Amino acid sequence: MIETNLSKTSSFFSSSDSYEKSDLILLGIPMDYTASNIPGSRFAPKRIRELSHTLENYSSFFDDHIDEKFYDAGDIVMPWGNTVKSIKFIEETAEDILNDGKKIVSIGGDHLITYPIVKKYAAKYKDLVVLQFDAHMDLREEWNNEKYSHATVLKLVYDIIKKGNLYQFGIRSGSKEEFDFAKKHCRIYKNDVYEPLKKVAGSLSGKDAYLTIDIDVLDPAFAPGTGYIEAGGISSKELFDAVSLLLSEAGVNIVGADVVEVCPPTDNSDRTSAIAAKLIREIIIGMSKNVCKNKINLNLKNKENGGNNSV
Ligand SMILES: [Mn+2]
């Protein structure tokens, strides 16, 4: 049971109506007060939900429908402007959902939302791998004297997961110190996402992984509606190819995911929110296939063990 206050004015399309019966929970986290350039990602969960209703419920890649595969729990009611309290609320919500044996797909919000979620995932999955698709490394120790920021979030994550378990793809911006740190301590792949992911996918097979997608990994031509524009990014096709690879043949067990930094007030054509909505559809369908696969594997294991455990 989720104990934090949630607000629900609309749902992502094709949501089931039962929290209890759903393995995947969609959660909106409208926090944007650590954005260092243009705020406005607090409006992303609402706009992405609205745009989701223009999508087909069928994914040709997965050859499957999204219907009833998740429950949209609504948005966490945020204590506006209070970063520390917001982190606490997000942690508590994530913990409640994970304690119920479910997995979380979240819509940010600025990138800081990833830290409290991963904190709870790392407590549950001891060898958790974090896969970051992003223009920026977000590895700063502090940003304008603030430890908790969308520019420090992956350093906070780095500090709570096993060394060597942070993979960064599509990176094309950061300070020299960040690049030096990443080269030494992280697995950093500059500019591209699909090709390097394909190369490392084999070594990630069977691992539990959390996927965080900062929409600014895309070139601003594809995703202009974001808080910190960074030229020279990947195409939307490359992003979908990468997500599809990850959720299908790569064999990685994606246990949680988020899409962050969509900023509707600067997204005049709605194209960024529309991409994010489709991305979430693919993530939900792909993760639900993983959930099914794991259940089948567990069933087989139980049969081998005499079939005493129910799943
Ligand atoms: Mn980021």
Describe this structure in words.
The protein has 311 residues and is α/β, with parallel strands linked by helices. It has a single domain (6-296), classed as 3-Layer(aba) Sandwich (Arginase, Chain A), CATH 3.40.800. The chain is built from eight helices and eleven strands. It has helices at residues 44-52, 83-99, 114-124, 153-158, 176-185, 194-204, 236-247, 271-304, and strands spanning 6-7, 24-29, 58-59, 64-65, 71-76, 103-108, 129-133, 166-171, 187-190, 208-214, 253-260. The strands form two sheets. Strands 1-5-2-6-11-10-7-8-9 form a nine-stranded mixed β-sheet, sandwiched between helices. Helix 1 (44-52) packs across helix 8 (271-304) and helix 7 packs parallel to helix 8 (271-304). The chain is globular. The two termini are 20 Å apart. The model is unreliable at 305-311 (pLDDT under 50). The protein binds manganese (II) ion. Residues 111, 134, 136, 138, 150, 214 line the site of manganese (II) ion. Manganese (II) ion binds at residues 111, 134, 136, 138, 150, 214.
